[in-house]
Amino acid sequence: MHKYRLVAKKGEGTFSEVLKAQCIKNGKYMAIKCMKSSFDSLDQVNNLREIQALRRLSPHPNIIKLLEVLYDQPTGRLALVFELMDMNIYELIRGRTHYVPEERVKRYMYQLIRAMDHMHKNGIFHRDIKPENILIIDDVLKLADFGSCRGIYSKQPYTEYISTRWYRAPECLLTDGYYTHKMDMWGVGCVLFEVVSLFPLFPGTNEVDQIERIHATMGTPPQEVLAQFKKRSAHANFDFPPREGTGIAKLIPHFSPEGIDLIMKLLIYNPEERLSAKQALRHPYFRELREEEKRQAAALSPGLTPSLGPSPSAMPPPVKQRSSGNLSARRRSHRETDRQRQDKLPGIHRARDEEHTSPLPGLPGASGKHQVSDAENRGSQAGVSSSNSTGSLPQLFAVNPVSSKALNPRAPLGVGMIQPGAYGFSGKQAGPLSTTSLKGNPLAFNARGLKQSLASVAALQPQASVPVIRHKPELAAGGGRKKYVSPYSQRALQSFKEG
C-alpha cells in the first residue's frame, strides 16, 4: 500500500470496503478493494474466485479491469487494485427527480447484457446482479464485484442465499440451490426496470414477501412450473392462490413498448423460457445499437491491414469439385487412359481412387500422426531401402508418380515423371519407398504435373542420369546401373533449369 495515497472511502460491503487512492508514481486515481478477511498463503489468494474470474474474463470493455493484487503475507491482508469509475447505477438514480433518458438507458443495458453474454460464454455466472455492482463512467458501463460468481458447469446444488433478495430469481427462492446462469438475466430485468422507473420492482422484506410481490406483479405461474420447483425443494410452501398480476406496463407507462417487452421476457418465471444474454442482445429494443455497431465496423474495416494472408478479394475463387457421376464422357475417357498407363508401369502399386483424398504415404495427416500405407508396409517387408542415393536433402520430398497423381488428378500419369530413388524395381514385386516428412511444408505444387516432377528431379539430382535403388543391400549402398532417360525428358529438364 506504500505505492498509493488513500484519498477517500467509496463504499463498503459485507466482505470488503472500497477506497479511492492515488498512485504516487504517476498520479492516477485507482479504486482499491480491501478484503475484510485474512488469507494464510499466496495459494489461497490465487484460488480466490474473484481473481480467477477476472483473469479469465479480462480484457473486455464492459468488465472492470483488475490492475494489481496487493498481498501482505505477515498480516494476511489482501487488496485488489481496480480502475476508478465515476459511480454505480444506484448512485445514478438515487434522489433523482427526472427520468433517465431512454437512449442512455438503452446504451447502458446493452453494455450490461454484453458483459453477461461474455461471462456466460466463458462458463461463469455472476449471482449478484444489482445496481450497486454496475459501475459507469460517462457513457461506458462495466460490471464489477465477482466475489459471488460461480462456474456454470459446476455441480448443483449451490448456495441458496447468494444474491441480494430484491434481485433474486424465483428458482433461487423456491428451490434448495437448484438454479442456473439464467438467474443473472432475472437480475438484469429487475435492474432495467429500476433504472427506468427510479424505484425497485420487488422490494420484499423476506423470502415469503418477495414471492408474494413477484406474484402480485407478474401473476402466479402455471402449476407445471411450480411442480418442477417442488421436486427440488424441501422447505418452501407451494400453495399459492392464483393471481393475474398487475403487469409491468402500468408501472412504467413512459417506457417504449419494445422495452417493456424486453423486461417481460427477462422476468419469465420459468428459467428455461427466460431470455439468455445472447437472445437479449438480438431483441428488437437494441436494433438501432446493433446497426450502429455494423456501421462502425464497416467504417473501420477498409483501414485494417490483414496480418496473415491476402485479403478475401485478392484470393482466387474456390475450385468447384465435381462428383464422379457428373463427369463428361471426355473426362471419363482421360481417366481411363491414365489408369491404363498406370497399370503398364512395371512394379508400381496402382493407386486406388479413394487414395486421391487420403493423406499421402509417409506424410502427416490432419491428426499430426505419421500414417503408413499398405504399399509402404509391403516395401519395408521386402527390404526396400528408404534412403535416397543422393543423400540427405533438407526440406525436400521424393515424390513418385502415384503421389503426384493423388495430389493433382489432372496431371498425366507416367509422362516425363523421373523420380530418383523413389522406387525399387526387382522383377514383378516392388513398392514405393517411404517419403520423409521434414519441417514446414516444402511442397509447392502447381497445375502442371510435368513441371512439378521436373522440379523434384532438378532439386534431387542435377544430372540427367538417375540411379536406381534395388532391394539388395549391396546394390542400395552404391554401384547401381544408370536408368535410361528419354531425350524428351532431357530437353524438358534442361529447359526447366535454364528457365
Automatic annotation (TrEMBL):
Residues 4-286 form the Protein kinase domain. Pfam families: Pkinase. Keywords: ATP-binding, Nucleotide-binding. InterPro entries: Kinase-like_dom_sf (IPR011009), MAPK (IPR050117), Prot_kinase_dom (IPR000719), Ser/Thr_kinase_AS (IPR008271). Residues 292-391 are annotated as: Disordered. Residues 378-391 have a biased composition (Polar residues). SMART domains: S_TKc (SM00220). One of its GO terms (molecular function) is ATP binding. Gene3D superfamilies: Phosphorylase Kinase, domain 1, Transferase(Phosphotransferase) domain 1. Residues 335-357 have a biased composition (Basic and acidic residues). CDD domains: STKc_MOK. Signal peptide: none annotated. It comes from the Eukaryota. Residues 300-312 have a biased composition (Low complexity). This is Protein kinase domain-containing protein. It comes from [Myrmecia] bisecta. The lineage of its organism: Eukaryota, Viridiplantae, Chlorophyta, core chlorophytes, Trebouxiophyceae.
